[in-house]
Automatic annotation (TrEMBL):
Transmembrane segments: 12-33, 39-62, 74-98, 118-138
Protein name: Histidine kinase
Cellular component annotations (GO), alphabetically ordered: membrane
Native source organism of the sequence: Flavivirga rizhaonensis
Keywords: Kinase, Membrane, Transferase, Transmembrane, Transmembrane helix
Coiled-coil residues: none
Domain of life: Bacteria
GO molecular function terms noted in the UniProt entry: phosphorelay sensor kinase activity
Keyword Transferase: yes
Any Pfam family matching the protein: His_kinase
Domain Signal transduction histidine kinase internal region, residue spans: 166-243
Amino acid sequence: MLTRQFFFNKIGQLLLHVIFWCGVLLFYTYFFGFDSIDFSYVLSFSLFLMPITIATTYVFIYELIPSYLITKKYFLFGLYSLYTVIISSYLIVISVFYGLIYLSHFRYANMAPISRNLFFVATAVYLVVIVVSGFKMLKLNLKHIEKANKLENKILETQLKLKEQQLNYLKMQIHPHFLFNTLNTMYGFALKKADEAPEMILKLSNLLDYLLYKVDKPFVLLTDDIDHIKDYIELEKMRFNNTLDVIFLTEQISENIMIAPMLLLPFIENSFKHGTIKNGLLTIKITLTCRDKNIYFNIENTSTQPETYKNGIGLENIQKRLDLLYKNHYTLHITKDNDLFKVNLILNTNTSE
């Protein structure tokens, strides 16, 4: 099948070349026939010029331009072009003598007026060469652009796949971390046979549903993520009992704003995991606000641990996810101020819609 298609393509190209050179022959007969009534002379003179024109043209478009000009070997292109012009000019001179000796039998007056002038004959030949060479360069440039675009698309596709793999890897790291904390909490309730255990199982079921069916999406509604965060906070409230003072404030939350799933939870997880109970309480304050397509997320918790714990697995992964999903569209500041550990995150959500 491919051989047959290749054969038909070659036949098609050959026919195009034949049609083109027939057009050039018509052009020559019209050009050199100006102010002449001897059609036989004009046709014979034009036919004599055709091999010179075809040979010169093919040397340029199939050898000099692809091998030297396109590859930026300008010196060799200029040198070989000069050789080609010299040889073709010599043959053009011969064509004029051919018209004088063989076609007009040494009678200068019998020659077609334009064919007497070497400059006009050379102009006709090189005009064809220049026009065809121009089209050849345009074709090669278009092919080069097409190849460059295909290569760029492949690179972008590869980068996108790599980005997706990195994100999936980071999500896989976050899930065990999150599930480990939650199951530990539920295990404690089971040991105590607490009455809150059924409610805790229901909250955990909601969280697992979120993990299974929402977290694999590139973006989810911010409102869904907030509900997920609330379920997690309720689970932690059950675990900490009266030793937890947590405030979660949301303001101006748009129903249409999207966010990467599981993006904010690691910050909240770390506030519970690394926060320190002071005066009998672990104090955590979380605020989430939307303004002008931006998400403003702030969290602070009591802590007496060294500042270096902010480089834990959860926060390290979330930093990588932010770089992949919101590169140059977010600001993140993590600070330790006296006995408070603070996280300030601003997301521009225009990139996620």
